[in-house]
Amino acid sequence: MLIGVFAFLGGPLHAENRAAADALLAVAEIERFLLDESRFRYEALAARRAAIDGNVELLHESLDAAVREEEVPDPQRLIQLAGQLESAEADRVALLAVERMLVDRIGQHLQRLELIERQIDGLEAPEENEGTLTGAWDLVLMPARQRGTALLRQTGALVNGTYRLEGGWSGSLQGTLVNRKVFLVRIDSKLGKSMELEGYLSDDGKRIRGTWLDYELAGGVGATGQWTALRQSDSD
């Protein structure tokens, strides 16, 4: 993927096209980084799933053997095994839910990389107009109710900008807007690539609501929460 894009950039390009292509490639680099991160976490989850599956199988065998003993089974042993099995099954259900979330994210990263490739391949003339997300936005990150502002600029499906959050956090935002679905990567001045924000733009173009995933705050799947953005001209 994107091999043809680099060959494309080697040819003659209008200055505006080259700038747009460079920006798109920067977003693609972030997407590939996040894709690799999601794949790494999926592999870790797959290893945990295999361990849990093996444990569940052993517990089933132990419980079956205990129930089938010719002598009177030890009731405490049966209760203990049943409890361990129930706990292991619950762990497996929870892990499968997280695994599904990661599979969805991997698919979304791949789709966005394909979109970026199509955009670069289709660069033939300078971009005409700024898009719907262009402007200043008031941000709220839940559950901590951390507030801030973002200044965004959209060109085609490409979105970039800057942000400031309470607590002295600041940095840049890069992402896409496709069919009202917003995807942004937070690149913090201190933490680097630290957060994904996904959401949907309201029909009137004034609000964004969605979820965030912060890889910096958790060693496994990542801390999550909700976020909203309100266009500043409509916040009074």
Name some characteristics of this structure.
alpha+beta, Lipocalin, eight-stranded antiparallel barrel, 8 strands
Care to describe what's here?
- This protein is of the alpha+beta class.
- It has 2 domains: 15-121; 135-234, Quinohemoprotein amine dehydrogenase alpha subunit, domain 2 (Lipocalin, Beta Barrel), CATH 2.40.128.120.
- The protein is built from 3 helices and 8 strands, in the order αααββββββββ.
What does this entry show, briefly?
This protein has three helices and eight strands.
**Rg on CA atoms, Å:** 24 Å
The percent range for strand residues is 25-35%
Low-confidence stretches: 1-13, 217-221
Oligomer: single chain
Topology:
Elements: H1 3-9, H2 15-67, H3 75-121, E1 135-141, E2 146-155, E3 158-165, E4 169-178, E5 181-188, E6 192-201, E7 207-214, E8 223-231
Helix pairs in contact: 2-3
